[in-house]
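Need residues for this backbone.
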């Protein structure tokens, strides 16, 4: 089940809200937990058991790590916890990748496992890993109540695609959190805006991207159009989902951290990654880069640490070589910025924005590809490789058709709409007219999005791939 679906919006969510707010405080977490397991099991019931086992292993290891704190056994249990968590991820997500490369290197024909990827496994695995590591570090206390820990891991608002929530950020909220009309209304507003971003913008851009992949009339301009459309599609798809997750969290009393902060206004790739998928970037920083030594052990070791982090970041996104190259691509850019020209770049405002958008567009072409060969073809096409013409009639046709959507998407990816909203709020403070107008816009967005869903329109969710 996904948020942008009729079953979720008009069946699952209303029932869960009624049960949750009718339940006494002591039963609110159990209601959320059971609802989350049902939500997860809707798409793949057999993997609910896998998630429950993973949660239980994290719970037991957390208790054992704390029980033997300061002793050698504590580290042993931490290592076991990490190995158990990563074993499930490696088996389901990467087994066929390793088999494919083993066969290519040896000439053997080991059969593929062809396992379905459990939805959200990359996210909840990282959450359990951060929990046990934080218990070992003494940052948090081991959770004694298995229901609380299971609620944290399985919480359906952020289960499928994040943000990656750390236990320390919601530890107190799991035990005691506040509910209010203001908080719930803010959550509803955030959810509807996220839904609109997903349905009305991301899905529309997705249609253009699909047309490109099926076209036989490609051109350099068409490749760049696809790069921009895909880059904006994945931004609105994923940031829209994060908006919906944060909004739902507010309704249930949770304060989830922001996951996107207008990445396309960045003046460097370094800044871009402070603004894009924030929860993933900070996770790798705190649980991989810093433990490896960060920048404390000299330039050579720092360089090694950067490339390890970005190799893993790429591999986390998918079991294909193009994802690994995508990660290393950013590793190279970030290294050059850090050691050579970051300060100079940030002094040239216009040039720095062009630089970021150029390299981001190229990166998303690598990311969009199904394999390394296709990634090479995509990037080559952007620069006229293999005799690709500069312009095609089909490209001009779709540029005209989707031009307004692309313009709206580009404008919406900047803080301009937010600044205009804040200016209106300050100018017409406590205005009933402005409040009613906002409510009407939100209702209209919900109705239009519902109409698209009821019509069975194109409705992919890109992060199911990862």
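Answer:
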């Amino acid at each position: 089940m996904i948020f942008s679906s009729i079953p979720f919006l008009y069946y699952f969510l209303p029932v869960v809200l009624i049960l949750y707010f009718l339940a006494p405080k002591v039963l609110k977490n159990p209601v959320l937990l059971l609802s989350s397991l049902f939500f997860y099991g809707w798409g793949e019931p057999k993997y609910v058991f896998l998630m429950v086992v993973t949660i239980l292993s994290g719970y037991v290891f957390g208790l054992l790590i704390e029980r033997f704190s300061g002793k050698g056994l504590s580290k042993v249990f931490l290592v076991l916890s990490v190995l158990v968590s990563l074993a499930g991820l490696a088996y389901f997500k990467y087994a066929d990748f390793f088999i494919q490369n083993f066969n290519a290197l040896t000439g053997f024909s080991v059969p593929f496992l062809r396992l379905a990827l459990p939805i959200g496994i990359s996210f909840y695995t990282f959450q359990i890993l951060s929990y046990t590591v934080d218990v070992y570090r003494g940052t948090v206390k081991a959770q004694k109540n298995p229901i609380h820990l299971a609620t944290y891991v399985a919480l359906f608002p952020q289960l499928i695609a994040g943000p990656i929530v750390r236990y320390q950020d919601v530890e107190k909220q799991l035990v005691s959190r506040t509910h209010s009309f203001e908080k719930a209304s803010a959550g509803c507003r955030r959810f509807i805006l996220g839904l609109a971003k997903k349905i009305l913008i991301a899905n529309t851009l997705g249609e253009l991207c699909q047309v490109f992949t099926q076209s036989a009339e490609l051109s350099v301009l068409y490749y760049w159009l696809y790069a921009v459309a895909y880059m904006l599609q994945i931004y609105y798809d994923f940031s829209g989902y994060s908006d919906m997750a944060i909004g739902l969290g507010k309704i249930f009393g949770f304060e989830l951290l922001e996951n996107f902060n207008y990445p396309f206004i960045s003046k460097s790739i370094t800044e871009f990654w402070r603004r894009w998928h924030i929860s993933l970037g900070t996770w790798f920083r705190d649980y991989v880069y810093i433990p490896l030594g960060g920048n404390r052990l000299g330039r050579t070791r720092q360089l090694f640490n950067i490339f390890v982090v970005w190799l893993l970041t790429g591999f986390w996104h998918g079991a294909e070589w193009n994802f690994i190259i995508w990660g290393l691509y950013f590793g190279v850019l970030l290294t050059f910025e850090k050691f050579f020209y970051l300060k100079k770049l940030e002094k040239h405002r216009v040039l720095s924005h062009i630089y970021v958008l150029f390299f981001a567009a190229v990166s998303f072409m690598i990311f969009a590809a199904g394999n390394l060969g296709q990634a090479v073809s995509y990037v080559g096409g952007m620069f006229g490789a293999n005799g690709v013409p500069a312009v095609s009639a089909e490209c001009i046709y779709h540029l005209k058709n989707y031009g307004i959507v692309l313009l709206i998407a580009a404008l919406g990816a900047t803080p301009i709409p937010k600044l205009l909203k804040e200016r209106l709020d300050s100018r017409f403070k406590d205005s009933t007219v402005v409040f009613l107008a906002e409510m009407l816009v939100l209702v209209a967005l919900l109705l239009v999005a519902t109409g698209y869903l009821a019509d069975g329109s194109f409705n992919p969710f890109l992060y199911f791939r990862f």
